TrEMBL record, chains A, B:
This is Transcriptional regulator MntR. GO terms for cellular component: cytoplasm. Belongs to the DtxR/MntR family. GO terms for molecular function: DNA binding; DNA-binding transcription factor activity; protein dimerization activity; transition metal ion binding. It comes from Thalassospira xianhensis MCCC 1A02616. It is found in: Cytoplasm.
Length: 142, 142
DNA sequence: TTTTAAAGTTAGTCAAGGCTAAATTGATTT
DNA sequence: AAATCAATTTAGCCTTGACTAACTTTAAAA
């Protein structure tokens, strides 16, 4: 039968799934930096309590996640103070905001109901490549 | 200010995120039942070693996941034997297969490169509502 | 200024989903 | 029949992301 690695050429999906696992780890980070940016814009600052309310999780969970985001260089925080985005965090938040908007507008252009478009965009946005995003953008006329 | 629940009507996203967290738990299940169905069709049976190879994880990880799937009623398995889908598992696999196809065909119809479409479909499929799926289906002419 | 309430933190627990290393089982060779 | 090899299982560990309960800090009211 020859080289085993050539036996199932159409099924070498391992890399796809590996990247999907990595992608999931990024989703929470992206949701947080987006939400923090929203809060800073809308309320002037990002407090744990607001994040907890909007994500529907406890304050303890927010605390854990913020620590991880800080470790990974996306935010800065000091005990009992509000949360700030680093330059890296701001950059990611802005990228996510644009991407979210493109996905949402695309679904609207497709004729999807706004409420459903908002919900689906939240899930889809993390899994759209640059190429597909460009196709979405082109379809809805930028 | 009245009812606090009406104060931020555009920001009651907690439910959206709660559903997304639930959705993630379903993704692995869906990927596994889909892959098991593929293996049974293509190779006559679904063995742990094949799942491990295709997902790019170790056999131990497959073992854990299969136990969870069995607990949740999607598969049956006996020690050192191959894995079978229950009726519930077959149903989910078939639903996923159809949905995957619709998403993939839709991306192709949009002009996305097949390799990228395949990759993105794998991530997007788990986050598409029935309504959006219908819109995709309609766009690519079924 | 003292008390109280809200916000934030810490400690400990759990499930999912990964891993490695070691043990076991089943199947194939010799 | 015994040895060997591949597949599977088990045990133990890790990280993420959730929780509750208890504690501390900050801010606001009395």
């Amino acid at each position: 039968m020859g080289d085993p690695s050539a036996r199932h050429p159409r099924h070498n999906k391992a890399e796809v799934f590996a990247q999907l696992r990595y992608a999931h780890a990024r989703e929470v980070t992206e949701d947080y930096v987006e939400m923090i940016a929203d809060l800073i814009e809308e309320e002037g600052e990002a407090r744990s309590v607001a994040l907890a309310e909007r994500f529907g999780v406890t304050a303890a969970t927010v605390n854990n996640t913020i620590k991880r985001l800080e470790r990974d260089g996306f935010v800065t925080s000091r005990p009992y103070r509000s949360i700030f985005l680093t330059d890296q965090g701001k950059e990611l938040a802005e990228k996510c905001r644009k991407r979210h908007e493109i996905v949402y507008n695309f679904l609207i252009a497709l004729g999807v109901d706004p409420a459903i478009a908002e919900f689906d965009a939240e899930g889809i946005e993390h899994h759209v490549s640059e190429e597909t995003l460009a196709a979405f953008s082109k379809f809805s006329g930028n």
